[in-house]
């Protein structure tokens, strides 16, 4: 078993990046995720593994540094929080278009605008439907614990390189700021330049004698060519939907009612499940871990067995659309949300279940 | 197309003294006739050929007319988002410190939307080369005003001439970045005459050479024409450039070996 | 007597007729054709024997379509 | 065993690090823990609080609305969190600076004059350890050797010389804790 | 009747802005919409009405200029195309949060990334679900003709000020570049400063003696306060959904099949409707004009009467989600899309109807 | 709290010679003890009071510790997105040319993310006042390195001190914008002593006065402390500032009446 | 009446303005019109085309895949658009520079040697007006007085002195149009 | 003899105890209290009679909590 630590979620992201053999972090401070870069700077990852850490002049610069580095096959990561992630949307769209692998961490805070620094899940749409322009998808992971903050960084890199696509960790201020026990995976060695060149033949690493020069771009002025690019992307997304769905079911076997929630909300719903069951209400929890690909079939088959579904999110109702698109409108599906930085408490979630689903 | 003045006795492979470098991809350039972009491309590739660093160079092209530079330069390249080439180059150079990394950018790209990335890459003293094509206009999008457009100059968004009181002053990015400790070599050149083109080549060579010394940014501004945007023939445009651009953007070195050259203001 | 003599070859199909080379040649060697190439451009052509192979025209040609030759030739 | 604790007070009272020591010690003892702070600029001169959960099982919600124990160190915290103690639960408070004392009848209440003691000792930094001592007296979640380890982990190395002082403060806290109301 | 002109869609936007009494345009060139600013600059609107036109240094600057001007009660507009709109997402989220009125025109091109400059509708999600962070909505109008490019500018300003919200015109490169006849509305006088002050008591115009100082912000560090802001926004969106839905139905009375399409796609589907009817296929066209608020009920009641629905979009399937969310999964709803700058032709739309819906 | 040295015979309304201006909203400031933000706020409001332009002024606050400036200054204000205050101010001033418009920005806001907006507002010569609080750090977010952080200085993202080779050089935005033709008055001041605070007040007054003349940007950098970020007491911080910041960021006028002041490099 | 036209050729041949004149003239005659160009950098030295629709009814799609008339002015355009003419429709082309002449058997085909005529006249700018003349001979969509107005609208004022020249070119075009194949 | 005399009033509840005023006073008029205010800060207080009403303390006080009075008083 790996090393055991008590860490903040943000710190776990940073430590996991080092251990995943990440080549570079580029970011800009913003609450509630500044600990990612602070931890890295304190850890001197350049001495530990050769990893480069640079504080950029803005989130726009950060994401374009990530774009540049990823285009050369390097394993790179950035993190920010909601307003900063909005500034990255052009760059993210470029990366999707140029098919570049990278991990982007959004430690979501309450919006819109400058909002508040408290936790929120209101960036679901932005992450899942594409906040940038054009038809693209990110793989979106929703860590619900410090352990997952760590593990999803590694998983994120694996998926990013497997599919040549940016991967987003959609976390929130609470998961970023809280400390939990985490079992760290062992250091994965950083690839040498030669390994990068060998493993990423698509990357712009300097022209090799035996191949054409490589061009990393998201431009194809010819619409027929651009349509081909898009068809290729769509085919890739289909493959991801077929292969990479992750979810968790808790107490679903005998459930008459169902919570659907991701990330921090799922943790709260888990407690609410306990509280409700203590009251005799048979409720289960379905937690999508991948938000894209969304567990469409899985959620549908579980929902088929229950009388009603409460989707709990720290937003005004976003993932609920994907739940409904999975199962149609003939099931009772309601939303319970708190927002703007407010975290719902387990007992109010139970109350909402009683009022909106069981009683309603 | 019979040739009247061919000299077969001279026209032999061993007598070739100038030939487009093989590092230019063999396809027609997408630029308008007479556009300086093509000349700079070729000169740049000559330097890379001379230094024998084709395999060690990673280039970053901008959004602008030279967005397709990567189609013409036979080296690995990345196309940046508009204005962000210095950010890409920063990350690439830091992760590949032994590669030669350059950006190739237009004036809209570098001096408008990319101002922050340009200033900060220069201020951090990234060990990269920045080639900055200043044609005083947005060529690609159809001739809009650029930050570098001269006072009174017409463009599609200053159809009655640039009015400095409402549209601002032409911005001398080169003089600005020369003020920063992170730039090591800063020069302004042109490629419209053989002499100038040769000087530009030396300047690019120098900027690449200092990448080896890790002393900071090497910066070459090339004042260039955009005959389409200026609505002139190429020859007229070069003349207009000499008469109007050069007085405002004087050619020559501005900073050498990290030291500002003393010139009259 | 040995004299330096030059010659140029212009890839007329790639020439865009910008006339920049004409201004660059110290010996008036180049002029524009009456005909157009398949892209519709009048192209540069050699119009006398004065070429010294100085490479001026080639180095300023934006489209890099000029190849320059130079040799010592013995005259008389 | 699951213990759900809220610790709340002024910024600067060491609320967060008290929680951290608890959490670290829990980890040492192989328990599941979560430590969830309030954060951000509202902490600057304002209030600070942290939810600590120590449990034998996987922890569900790190954010709670009812606690086994509330440790409340100023009036604002009293106003906000007194009502969140579970019936039969525990409330510990420092009466210094408290204008409205706790009024719940269904919980165990203890007071601890930690601020005074810390001032007496001339070392305000041990305030939080005194309070921690009081808590540990009632709920010995942490064995002494693990407390030591927890201090080692949570204090930066340059402050490790202060560990003995801190441990003494914990002992002091155990001694000065006063019952106010016992319901079970 | 107003003045008759033959104009490009982009020019119509510019002329309509002047005539709507707009106070300022702030923008940055990008194909295929640069004619908006070019037309304005040529028209000297400062001389015509006092309208200010400024070429900003970037789209980030543009949207923040719009934010500043709108915060003082002025009537302002910006325009861009996909990558530029992505760069505006932070600013747009701020405007939604601070409840500022403005018109933002997106003349969409093919994405993702730099993509192509040809027309596309792939920014539907970004416009409708919120490309920026946080729970907010824009009112989204989808002009399908040069006439509507003109009219929607005026309508956009009216809605923006009625609800204090940014309004987006989701157009595309074809509608922006094509010329059609347009009947221009008469010049609406620009408001004087005094009128602005009187009509926008919420705006930061300089502190009046008889009122508190005004603060324009999207920040509320207190999450309870931020939640109130959000609840207020949600209530506003509900009102908009109740009052502002616009749509058009063509040949729907006797339709057995239905096209659902917006903007340029709807024009193409209209032709396809003619072609299909000539072949004896009874097909109608439902065109949402407001994308938010989406005509949920209206589309549901029309769809109830048909055997199958083809949603035609110049993207990989975006609005189709809102169609499905309106009517559930028990109706046959398929998508036909071309993308990356490719415009579907009317006859391929008919073929798709035959294959995917009638035959399928 | 009985007062030992009260002088009731002097303490009469008619003898008041200094009193916090009523243009400061009567609520406690959110700043740390000793933070210069509060002093600058008050001085600024004194200028607005003296000029009697409370109703004619529109302020723009940044994202940074002074994000809440609008809660304390009793004038109409807008909170900008991080770095974008000059863009807001540009639009506001152009649409309300008779209002006095100012931005109030920190060094992270103005010199990092907002570099492009800052440079271009200055280059366009917008008729606005820019008040730039340089405390060499990101105060709000917990003490990260700013573009202005001194070499070797510790911050939460330069815990071993700023290493100029990897983290870049401190950026002197004030010297840079002074180079631009669009700035009319550029000065660097501080508020940590009575004398300096009085000079800063004169500088702000001057910058507001030139708004009437429409001559371009008036720019006041205030070198200030961030005792929380620097992890010092306020008094220590002010001393440290004098010893370390001032040598690098020397106080005084840099450009007056559109002309650069001659100083030794 | 609805006439759906594609005009295609090199950039610089005046393809777009030919379409514009048709469109303007249509507006003058109170018809519905749409003018949909290809645009962007691919026009720089490359090809250009424009779809013009003139109709008595509201125009549905401004983008078409079948046309009543195709006016094709270089080989690329011929290759791309010959097949898009509706059966029984009209194709007009300038044989100058055409290596593969149209092969469709089910459409009416006319040729017009406009490039030669324009070169003869020494005024290449009237090339497109000659072609337009040829088209108008067959499809008199535009009455002469409206053509004049259309020219006024579509030419910048400083070129209005050239209007007579342009009108003459239209007349010339009408005269030099040659039938190649008539199917109806 | 007429002499300029000053006095200051400190809003101790708003004082944050930063001590900046102390450094600014030329006459050592101000020192810190032992007590804390309700926010927990030691606050500034007047500790002698030497105040001339020069306003130095007030102008540097970041929280603007000092009001300064000055008057000519006749002594002797
Ligand atoms: C975010 C964004 N904004 C705007 C554009 C449109 N755009 C493309 S190139 C260009 C300007 C190019 O001008 P310059 O950099 O001077 O290069 P040139 O074409 O003159 O060589 C612009 C504004 C874009 N592609 N992306
Ligand atoms: C887009 C965006 N990025 C980052 C942040 C986080 N942030 C808030 S304030 C700040 C820096 C403040 O530093 P400075 O401007 O120097 O002001 P100070 O607090 O020092 O007065 C940052 C990075 C943000 N709010 N928005
Ligand atoms: S538009 Fe201008 S810059 Fe672009 S290729 Fe043509 S001449 Fe060169
Ligand atoms: S090589 Fe020199 S002399 Fe010969 S044609 Fe070229 S420019 Fe003229
Ligand atoms: S410079 Fe080159 S492209 Fe231009 S005319 Fe001469 S040979 Fe042709
Ligand atoms: S963190 Fe620094 S800048 Fe912010 S209020 Fe505190 S001392 Fe002032
Ligand atoms: S007014 Fe002057 S003398 Fe009086 S306390 Fe203040 S600084 Fe000292
Ligand atoms: S300067 Fe002001 S806040 Fe600071 S100690 Fe003195 S009176 Fe108090
Ligand atoms: Mg340019
Ligand atoms: Mg700062």
Strand content of chain C: 35-45%
CATH superfamily of the largest domain in chain A: Thiamin diphosphate (ThDP)-binding fold, Pyr/PP domains
Give the tally of β-strands of chain A.
15
Largest sheet of chain A: 7 strands, mixed
Major sheet: arrangement of strands of chain C = 1-4
Hetero groups = thiamine diphosphate, iron/sulfur cluster, magnesium ion
Domain count of chain C: 1
How would you characterize the overall build of this protein?
The complex is a heterooctamer, with two copies of chain A (360 residues), two copies of chain B (265 residues), two copies of chain C (76 residues) and two copies of chain D (184 residues). Chain A has 360 residues and is of the alpha/beta class. Chain A contains 15 helices and 15 strands. In chain A, the strands form three sheets. In chain A, strands 3-2-4-5-7-6-13 form a seven-stranded mixed β-sheet, sandwiched between helices. In chain A, strand 14 (308-313), helix 14 and strand 15 form a beta-alpha-beta unit. The mean pLDDT of chain A is 97. Chain B has helices spanning 36-51, 69-72, 85-95, 107-113, 115-124, 164-167, 173-178, 194-213, 227-230, 234-248; strands at residues 16-18, 57-61, 76-79, 100-106, 129-134, 137-138, 144-145, 183-190, 217-223, 252-256, 259-260. Chain B has ten helices and eleven strands. The mean pLDDT of chain B is 96. The longest helix of chain B is centred in the last third of the chain and has 20 residues, at 194-213. Chain B has 265 residues and is of the alpha/beta class. In chain B, strand 8 (183-190), helix 8 and strand 9 form a beta-alpha-beta unit. Chain D has one domain (2-181): Pyruvate-ferredoxin Oxidoreductase, domain 3 (3-Layer(aba) Sandwich), CATH 3.40.920.10. In chain D, helix 3 packs across helix 4 and helix 4 (127-138) packs across helix 6 (163-176). Classes of the chains: A alpha/beta (360), B alpha/beta (265), C mainly beta (76), D alpha/beta (184). Chains in contact: A-B, A-D, A-E, A-F, B-C, B-E, B-F, B-G, D-F, E-F, E-G, F-H. Chains A and E meet through helix 5, helix 6, helix 7, helix 11 and helix 14 of A and helix 5, helix 6, helix 7, helix 11 and helix 14 of E. Strand 1 of chain F pairs antiparallel with strand 4 of chain H. Residues 31-32, 35, 37, 65, 135, 139-140, 226-229 of chain B line the site of one iron/sulfur cluster (SF4).
């Amino acid at each position: 078993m790996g090393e055991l630590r008590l860490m903040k979620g943000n710190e776990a992201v940073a430590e996991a990046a080092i251990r995943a053999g990440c080549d570079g972090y580029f970011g800009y401070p913003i609450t509630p995720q500044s600990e990612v870069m602070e931890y890295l700077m304190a850890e001197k990852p350049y001495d530990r593994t050769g990893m480069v850490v640079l504080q950029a002049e803005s989130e726009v610069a950060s994401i374009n540094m990530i774009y540049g580095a990823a285009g050369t096959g390097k394993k790179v990561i950035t993190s920010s929080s909601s307003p900063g992630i909005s500034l990255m949307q052009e760059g993210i769209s470029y990366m999707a278009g140029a098919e570049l692998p990278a991990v982007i961490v959004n430690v979501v805070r309450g919006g819109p605008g400058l909002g508040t620094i408290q936790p929120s899940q209101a960036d679901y749409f932005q992450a899942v439907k594409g906040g940038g322009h054009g038809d693209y998808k990110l793989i979106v992971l929703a860590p619900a614990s410090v352990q997952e903050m760590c593990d999803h960084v590694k998983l994120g890199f694996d998926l990013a390189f497997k599919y040549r696509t940016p991967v987003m960790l959609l976390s929130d201020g609470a998961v970023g700021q809280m400390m939990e026990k985490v079992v760290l995976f062992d250091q994965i060695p950083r690839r040498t330049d030669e390994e990068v060149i060998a493993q990423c033949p698509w990357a712009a690493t300097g022209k090799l004698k035996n191949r054409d020069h490589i061009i990393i771009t998201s431009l194809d002025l010819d619409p027929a060519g651009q349509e081909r690019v898009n068809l290729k992307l769509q085919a890739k997304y289909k493959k991801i939907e077929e292969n990479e769905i992750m979810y968790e079911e808790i107490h679903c076997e005998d459930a008459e009612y169902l919570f659907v929630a991701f990330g921090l909300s799922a943790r709260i719903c888990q407690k609410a499940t306990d509280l409700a069951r203590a009251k005799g209400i048979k409720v289960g929890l379905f937690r999508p871990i991948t938000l894209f690909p969304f567990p469409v079939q899985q959620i549908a088959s579980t929902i088929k067995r229950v009388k009603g579904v409460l989707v709990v999110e720290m937003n005004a109702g976003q993932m609920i659309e994907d739940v409904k698109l999975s199962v149609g409108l003939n099931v009772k599906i309601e939303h319970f949300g708190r927002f703007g930085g407010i975290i719902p408490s387990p007992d109010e979630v139970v109350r909402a279940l009683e009022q909106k689903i069981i009683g309603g | 197309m019979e040739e009247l003045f061919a000299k077969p006795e001279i026209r032999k492979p061993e007598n070739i003294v100038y030939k487009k470098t093989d590092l230019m991809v063999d396809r027609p350039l997408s630029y308008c006739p007479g556009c300086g972009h093509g000349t700079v491309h070729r000169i740049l590739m000559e330097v890379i050929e001379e230094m024998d660093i084709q395999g060690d160079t990673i280039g970053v092209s901008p959004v602008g007319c030279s967005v397709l530079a990567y189609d013409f330069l036979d080296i690995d390249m990345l196309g940046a988002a508009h204005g962000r080439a210095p950010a890409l180059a920063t990350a690439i150079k830091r992760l590949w410190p032994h590669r030669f990394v350059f950006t190739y950018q237009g004036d809209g790209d570098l001096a408008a939307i990319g101002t922050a990335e340009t200033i900060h890459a220069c201020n951090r003293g990234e060990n990269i080369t920045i080639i900055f094509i200043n044609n005083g206009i947005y060529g690609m999008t159809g001739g809009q005003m650029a930050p570098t457009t001269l006072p009174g100059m017409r463009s599609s968004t200053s159809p009655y001439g640039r009015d400095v009181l409402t549209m601002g002053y032409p911005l001398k990015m080169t003089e600005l970045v020369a003020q920063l400790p992170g730039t090591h070599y800063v020069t302004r050149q042109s490629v419209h005459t053989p002499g100038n083109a040769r000087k530009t080549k030396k300047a690019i060579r120098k900027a690449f050479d200092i990448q080896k010394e890790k002393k900071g940014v090497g910066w070459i501004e090339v004042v260039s024409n955009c005959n389409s945007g200026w609505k002139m023939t190429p020859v007229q445009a070069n003349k207009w450039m000499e008469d109007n651009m050069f007085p405002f953007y004087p050619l020559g070195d501005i900073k050498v070996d990290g030291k500002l050259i003393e010139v009259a203001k | 007597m040995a004299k330096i003599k030059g010659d140029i070859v212009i890839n007329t199909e790639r020439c865009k007729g910008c006339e920049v080379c004409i201004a660059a040649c110290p010996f008036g060697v180049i002029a524009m054709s009456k005909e157009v190439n398949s892209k519709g451009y009048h192209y540069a052509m050699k119009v006398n024997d004065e070429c010294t192979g100085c490479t001026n025209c080639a180095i300023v040609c934006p489209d890099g379509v000029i190849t320059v030759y130079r040799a010592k030739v013995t005259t008389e | 065993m699951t213990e759900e604790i809220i610790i709340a007070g002024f910024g600067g009272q060491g609320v967060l690090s008290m929680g951290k020591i608890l959490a670290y010690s829990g980890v040492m003892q192989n328990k599941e823990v979560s430590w969830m702070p309030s954060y951000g600029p509202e902490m600057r001169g304002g209030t600070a609080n942290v939810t600590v959960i120590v449990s034998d099982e996987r922890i569900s919600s790190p954010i709670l609305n009812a606690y086994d124990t509330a440790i409340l160190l100023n009036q604002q915290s009293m106003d906000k969190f007194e009502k969140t103690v579970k019936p039969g639960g525990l409330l510990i408070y420092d009466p210094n600076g408290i204008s409205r004392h706790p009024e719940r009848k269904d919980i165990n209440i203890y007071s601890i004059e930690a601020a005074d003691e810390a001032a007496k000792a001339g070392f305000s930094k041990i305030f939080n350890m005194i309070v921690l001592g009081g808590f540990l007296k009632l709920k010995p979640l942490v064995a002494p050797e693990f407390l030591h380890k927890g201090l080692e982990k949570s204090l930066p190395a340059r402050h490790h010389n202060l560990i003995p002082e801190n441990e003494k403060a914990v002992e002091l806290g155990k001694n000065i804790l006063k019952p106010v109301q016992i319901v079970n």
